[in-house]
Write a structure and sequence with these properties.
2 copies of one chain form a homodimer.
Chain A: H1 13-24, H2 32-42, H3 50-95, H4 100-108, H5 120-126, H6 133-140, H7 159-162, H8 165-173
The structure holds a DNA duplex (22 and 22 nucleotides).
Chain lengths: 200, 200
DNA sequence: GCAAATTAATGATTTATTCAAG
DNA sequence: CTTGAATAAATCATTAATTTGC
């Protein structure tokens, strides 16, 4: 165990047990006060500093999340594959019909219980007089997701490669007024300005 | 997860990852065109509709704000507490050497020649050049665990019995409004009035 | 059995974010 | 637009587990 001249804290079993227990009980990011308490009391079992406690919770929380995420990913892997295959078929099925598939997926791929166009929006807006006229009018329009088909996308046949960092950036920035300058598959659609902040 | 017959959208990990990334990159309220893009491309990873994207951003934005607000409130409380503690420390700095080992272990064990007592998060990061950052940062940064030694503990001679389930729970749950039924020493320092969750 | 070598855990730092206040 | 405050994610670095060759 920790060499006498260790440069880092080595929790004793008791300390570890205690920290874990606290974690289980919901402690995640103890504040300074709590850290002090914990440190003070754990110091009974061995050398320990406040920062050790601080770091321990940080790391434990993070790694717990990671572990969980990994699990979920694995669990979803099968379903994912299935979905992807479905999508693949779906895409291929419609591919011959050119532009249709894209927005079809967008608004119709789901069970689409709803006949599309009523809903939620009205809830949030119409019911609340609070909203200013400006917002109301803004939302009075069709919901965003009901829009027409994005023509620019219809020609994209390489989804697998299309989705990438650049695309993300592009979408992030928000659409510049002009449309695709170059009709190439991915990047050309959106002249990437460096500004990441989209206008609100 | 999502049962095949689920009535609501269950984002796949890839979808979630992508959405989060876009959020991080600044997307907040994508317009219809953007939603179409996003939906179309995310549909590659699984079933998804435009409204899902729309709602996701709505909800994420809202919840992010809520979370932040909560955090800020907490921090306010913290700052106050810490200030109080600082004052306390200044007044009682040399009170007793008896159980010195306790807090000494807590904050003075390492090189840590830091003079403690600086307000946490009085962070002057960036003032220090990259190299030697290790040493420098030790002094430059202030973290919650940099707070003063818990003087209150100095007089606590019953750690063995004090540290128990109850204490753990106390720290975990966060302090109930009422103060300790048992006036133990350590508790006095932190009149934990705070429900960790402050008023909105 | 036992160390050197290698790998897995995990402690400690640094970096990149977030929203909103100024 | 910039900055404040505080992470949480990513990364670095050291310790513990373990494997391996003898």
């Amino acid at each position: 165990m920790c060499p006498a001249s260790s440069s880092r804290w080595c929790p004793t079993p008791e300390q570890l047990m205690t920290l874990r227990k606290m974690y289980r009980n919901g402690v995640r990011t103890p504040n300074a006060s709590q850290i002090q308490h914990i440190t003070a009391h754990l110091s009974f079992y061995g050398k320990i500093e406040g920062k050790n406690v601080f770091y321990w919770f940080q790391n434990h929380k993070t790694r717990d999340r990671q572990k969980l995420r990994g699990k979920l990913n694995k669990q979803l892997h099968l379903q994912l594959q299935q979905q992807q295959q479905l999508n693949y078929h779906h895409h291929h099925h419609h591919l011959s019909q050119t532009s249709h598939f894209l927005y079809d997926l967008g608004s119709g791929s789901g069970s689409t219980s709803i006949s599309t166009f009523q809903l939620p929006f009205y809830n949030s807006v119409g019911l609340f007089p609070k909203r200013g006229a400006r917002e109301a009018s803004k939302q009075a329009k069709n919901y965003p997701w009901k829009m027409g088909k994005p023509e620019a996308l219809k020609e994209n046949t390489m989804l697998t490669t299309f989705y990438n960092e650049d695309w993300t950036m592009m979408v992030d920035v928000g659409p510049p007024p002009c449309c695709c300058p170059k009709p190439l598959k991915t990047l050309e659609l959106f002249p990437i300005t460096d500004r990441l902040k989209a206008a609100e």
